[in-house]
Design goal:
CATH topology: 60s Ribosomal Protein L30, Chain: A
Protein name: Ribosomal protein eL8/eL30/eS12/Gadd45 domain-containing protein
InterPro entries: Ribosomal_eL30-like_sf, Ribosomal_eL8/eL30/eS12/Gad45
Oligomer: single chain
Helix content: 25-40%
Organism: Eutrema salsugineum
Domain Ribosomal protein eL8/eL30/eS12/Gadd45: 89-149
Number of strands: 5
Number of helices: 6
Shape: globular
Radius of gyration: 15 Å
Pfam family, one: Ribosomal_L7Ae
Structural class: alpha/beta
Length: 167
């Protein structure tokens, strides 16, 4: 997908609390991004030989909510580029955050925390409906933040094509 520019973890300043318009997925770009992620989730579910209930399977693939995303990021080692993956400590491939949530303090810490772990952050905005649209992805009413866990699934392959590679 061309024109996708996630926030580069190295470029986030410590006092950066304003999301630029160019860093947000809105309108057609947002619809395209969420459609790709939804197809990745569906493909991963179909290719999964396990017969886990959908909610449990989804929880294994995605960190859902501000608290869980924060918890997973905090448990990751700093500068994960040379880190060996430990199956007991899930690694995040990307974090998606609602940019227009109120109060902003709820998600303000996530970009800096993700930058310290070298995890890209995608901001989404949709005229105060972004949390509803993000919640639809994970079968909830609303979600302010989700983190896609690096598990080698079809969803991760879709996201690899979207995100620019640093290596």
């Amino acid at each position: 997908m061309r024109g996708v520019t996630p926030i580069n973890p190295q470029k986030i300043e410590a006092d950066s609390n304003i999301v630029k318009e160019s860093d947000c997925f809105e309108g057609e770009r947002l619809t395209h991004l969420l459609g790709l992620i939804q197809r990745g989730i569906e493909t991963s579910k179909l290719s999964n030989a396990n017969s886990l209930p959908e909610k449990i399977w989804l929880k294994q693939q995605i960190a859902i909510g501000i608290n869980e995303v924060t918890r997973v990021l905090e448990r990751m080692k700093l500068n994960t580029s040379d880190q060996q993956l430990n199956p007991r400590q899930p690694q995040l491939q990307v974090v998606i955050v609602v940019a227009d949530c109120k109060p902003r303090m709820l998600t303000k810490h996530i970009p800096n925390l993700a930058a310290s772990r070298n995890v890209p952050v995608l901001f989404i905005r949709d005229n105060k409906r972004a949390s509803l649209r993000l919640g639809e992805l994970v079968k909830l009413k609303t979600a302010l933040a989700i983190g896609i866990k690096a598990r080698g699934s079809d969803l991760n392959l879709v996201l690899q094509q979207i995100l620019p590679s640093d290596s």
